[in-house]
Specification:
It holds the Pfam family NTP_transf_2. InterPro entries: NT_sf, Polymerase_NTP_transf_dom. This is Polymerase nucleotidyl transferase domain-containing protein. The protein has two domains: about 5-120, 2-Layer Sandwich (Beta Polymerase, domain 2); about 140-280, no CATH class. Helices cover about 35% and strands about 20% of the residues. It contains nine helices and ten strands. The chain has helices at about 5-20, 35-40, 55-65, 75-80, 115-120, 150-160, 180-190, 195-210, 250-255, and strands at about 25-35, 45-50, 85-90, 105-110, 165-170, 215-220, 220-225, 235-240, 255-260, 270-275. The protein has a six-stranded mixed beta sheet. It is globular and about 60 Å long.
């Protein structure tokens, strides 16, 4: 996008922060990093890092969202950006940003609007800056990276570089499984017009069409067949939108595989990353 449009989007975000409506009342600091902060005239997506607190209500919301496979930060993202597209958010992860990111403070709780505006104006355009190189990228992420959070990309690239895992990219066909029991199990979890139902159905159908036949199949944290609820060697975990990504290494060390549907969606193409162990000794100890 052009820098002028990105600046307008940041002005609108400052409006939203000033209003302080729920859950923005939990935000303490907002930083800008990446191409825009460096001065690029065509910065691409806006990289924004948010530091926030939690309370009981917010924690309950996060737990509920995770239980039903939703993005637990969707409400905060929406409150920050409104209807605008083109943001990439990181939450409470400044210590995991790539080396050299140098996030620049934009807004801090207690600031006047004038102070925040001065910080924004201080991020001067630099015709020589160009766009920042895409961090933590491999071929399998190409075109999908905006839906793979940067800390996840960093972790996966680390595991690939150490030889611990292999990643295959798969284009899923939007179709229901052929197994009536699988169709019924997915129907009990999600409405048929849900993007999670569409993504899960396509992933299960892929396992059928590819002849994977894992001894147990888990979808968004639950076994597809509750009579086969023990996972271990060769079990397959289907995860939608990076659900419980922090458990990936544990599952891999137990001998499981992972099929990560990158972006569950009602109508757009569905892509998945099939993650398998290449060298278990190279996996970090638990």
């Amino acid at each position: 996008m052009k820098r002028e449009r990105a600046t307008e989007m940041l002005h609108k975000m400052l409006d939203n922060l000033d209003a302080g409506s729920r859950p923005l009342d939990l935000v303490d600091e907002v930083y800008v990093f990446g191409s825009y902060a460096r001065g690029a005239l065509q910065p691409g997506d806006l990289d924004v890092a948010v530091i926030h607190r939690t309370d009981t209500e917010f924690t309950e919301h996060v737990v509920g969202a995770l239980m039903y496979g939703r993005d637990p930060m969707a409400g905060m993202k929406r409150a920050l950006k409104g209807s605008k597209r083109g943001f990439q958010f990181q939450f409470n992860q400044n210590d995991r940003l790539p080396e050299g990111s140098e996030p620049r403070l934009l807004w801090k709780r207690g600031d006047t609007r004038a102070t925040a505006e001065e910080r924004l104006q201080a991020m001067k355009a630099d015709p020589d800056a160009g766009r920042a190189p895409r961090d933590a990228m491999i071929e399998q992420f190409d075109g999908l990276d905006r839906w793979i959070p940067l800390p996840i990309r960093i972790r996966l690239v680390e595991l690939v570089d150490t030889g611990a895992i292999e990643i295959s990219r798969i284009a899923l066909t939007a179709a229901d499984p052929t197994d009536p029991a699988a169709v019924a199990a997915l129907g009990r979890r999600w409405k048929t017009d849900s993007p999670l139902h569409r993504a899960a159905a396509a992933a299960v159908r892929y396992t059928e069409d590819s002849g994977m036949s894992p001894p147990s199949l888990w979808v968004q944290g639950q076994p597809l067949d509750h009579r086969r609820n023990q996972y271990g060697a060769d079990a397959l975990w289907i995860n939608l939108g990076w659900y419980h990504f922090d458990q990936l290494v544990f599952r891999l060390r137990e001998g499981a595989q992972s099929l990560e549907v990158v972006r569950p969606t009602r109508t757009q193409p569905l892509h998945a990353l099939h993650i398998t162990v290449r060298d278990i000794a190279a996996l970090a100890p638990l």
